[in-house]
Design goal:
The chain is α+β, with helices and mostly antiparallel strands. 29% of the residues lie in helices and 24% in strands. Strands 19, 20, 21, 22, 23, 24 and 25 form a 7-stranded antiparallel beta sheet that branches. Strands 1-2-3-8-7 form a 5-stranded mixed beta barrel. The protein has a 3-stranded antiparallel beta sheet with strand order 11-15-14, with no helix packed on it. Strand 24 and strand 25 form a beta hairpin. The radius of gyration is 25 Å and the shape is globular.
Length: 498
């Protein structure tokens, strides 16, 4: 997928305000872009603008979560937290860094107050920070260029070097492309096998529970920082054991019970689904790389209210609301791994539908990074009268409209239009096109085209995140369909399908 290249300098100390410089940790660093206007133009995942000023903007390193050096007047195991911070600075090129004794996360002196570097970013998070892969030194590309980020390029980032050294935990969010997520999941697994970095001391994970009697004890442990950030306010609220932790999480799905995609189970879930607590024991039941978080603490401001914000879920909700007033609507969803190809693919799909007398009458807002967009289609006025009764019924009932080449009614014009769609996705690594009961999936160079059953359509409706996952969608559909069949639930009308 495409990321934006930003050139500039990493900053760790303000010479004019040495005691008021950036607070450093193992997954955040200050960045002063050469062209601040490029930052303003980046996608805003939560709707919040970038928190940038004349001294720069904080960069949250994509895909990793370091032990907390400071959080709500507490911290995690400092040996591990400081090791990640120090290695981050070393990899960026800083040398002889010294910290204030009374301000242990601010730099007192260093050979360099700032140093050249670049980042590859796909947007702004809910705290106004850049989410990015970071690199030392200048990049030969033009500032602001759109670069295709693949596994080899990611592997050279400081992010992955920290992950490979076992100095940080993985933290994969839904904005991280599926192919990179799959690739990066192997990195912490290899670090655990080598028993490097924090992994020999890691606890509260599938290898064993942690015993937490109080906040002082928690500060000495190595646990997934996301879990740590939930336990701290729980203990601060006066709880002395974890018997009520599950209920406490569930009581606030917006800010405690993070929404997850549970990759091994191929289904959505929440933090409470992967945490087991009782007495003074707490444990993750799934490794962090196996749970992708839907939102990065995201919120949007509406008047004086703040609320959790899931961009994909919001677009699905808007689409379904629109479909309610269009009884013969069918859903069209397009996912491609490179947003730069969206115009060509969307145009080819539009022409393909037009060849069958179908028009797109509703378009949701695209989710950029990779490219995901959901739409609604209907038969053009006057077009249905040219179909025989059987074909018209198929239009209304299934939304397939004779799109399968095996069907006799598919004419040469339609076949040629579909060939243009295949040509448009030909250079992409992965893609999904879902229209009514037709599903086209491209992954790892292989294209699969199939007609869905109504149970499979319902499975996609209930799990729209699958339309961003070419790598698992077919397997997940099989599993979800089996579950639906067992529950014997009749699927709703087709126009609600994802």
């Amino acid at each position: 997928m495409s990321y934006t290249l930003l050139c500039g300098s990493f900053v760790i100390r303000y010479p004019d305000l040495p005691r008021q410089g950036p607070e450093l940790d193992g997954d955040t660093v200050k960045f002063l872009p050469d062209s601040p206007g490029l930052v303003e133009a980046l996608p805003r995942r939560s709707g919040r603008p970038p928190n940038i000023n004349a001294r720069g903007i904080s960069v949250r390193l994509e895909a990793i979560d370091a032990l907390e050096t400071h959080f709500a007047e507490t911290h995690q195991e400092l040996d591990g937290a400081n090791a990640a911070r120090d290695e981050l600075l070393r990899l960026l090129g800083f040398t002889n860094v010294r910290f204030w004794e009374d301000l242990p996360n601010k730099v007192r002196s260093a050979d360099q107050d700032s140093i050249r570097g670049h980042v590859l970013t796909n947007g702004i998070d809910a705290n106004g920070r850049l989410i990015a892969f970071v690199y030392a030194g200048d990049h030969p590309g033009a500032d602001g260029a759109s670069l295709f980020v693949d596994p080899p390029l990611v592997d050279h980032s400081v992010n992955v070097q920290l992950l490979a050294a076992g100095l940080v935990y993985p933290a994969f969010y839904a904005t991280l492309p599926a192919e990179l997520r799959t690739h990066l999941a192997e990195v912490p697994q290899a670090a655990r096998r080598k028993a490097v970095g924090i992994w020999p001391r890691s606890t509260a994970d599938p290898n064993g529970a942690a015993t937490v009697r109080d906040l002082d004890g928690l500060e000495r442990l190595v646990i997934w920082p996301k879990l740590f950030r939930r336990i701290v306010p729980y203990l601060a609220a006066g709880f002395t054991d974890f018997d009520g932790f599950d209920a406490w999480l569930r009581a606030d799905p917006d800010y405690r019970d993070d929404e997850l995609f549970l990759i091994p189970r191929l289904e959505g879930g929440n933090l409470h689904d992967v945490v087991r607590g009782a007495g003074q024991q707490i444990q993750l039941t799934m490794w962090p790389e196996d749970a992708a978080l839907y939102a990065q603490g995201a919120f949007m401001v509406r008047g004086s209210e703040s609320q959790q914000w899931d961009p994909l879920g919001a677009q699905v909700a808007k689409r379904e609301a629109r479909a309610e007033v269009e009884p013969h609507a069918s859903t069209l969803t397009i996912f491609i791994n490179d947003e730069n190809q969206q115009r060509a693919v969307e145009t080819a799909v539009k022409d393909w539908l037009a060849a069958q007398g179908i028009e797109i009458f509703y378009k949701g807002d695209p989710i950029i990074g990779s490219f995901w967009k959901t739409m609604l289609t209907r038969v053009k006025k006057g077009a249905e009268e040219h179909l025989d009764d059987g074909a018209a019924l198929a239009v209304r009932a299934a939304g397939l409209y004779g799109l399968d080449n095996r069907q006799a009614e598919v004419n040469q014009k339609e076949a040629e239009a579909f060939a243009k769609v295949m040509e448009a996705i030909g250079t992409l690594d992965s893609a999904i096109i879902h229209h009514g009961t037709l599903l086209v999936v491209k992954h790892a160079g292989t294209v699969v085209r199939r007609e869905l059953s109504q149970l499979e359509v319902e499975a996609l409706r209930r799990n729209p995140i699958l339309t961003t996952r070419p790598d698992i969608i077919l397997t997940a559909l099989q599993r979800h369909t089996e579950v639906l069949a067992l529950t014997a639930e009749a699927p709703p009308s087709e126009h609600n399908a994802s």
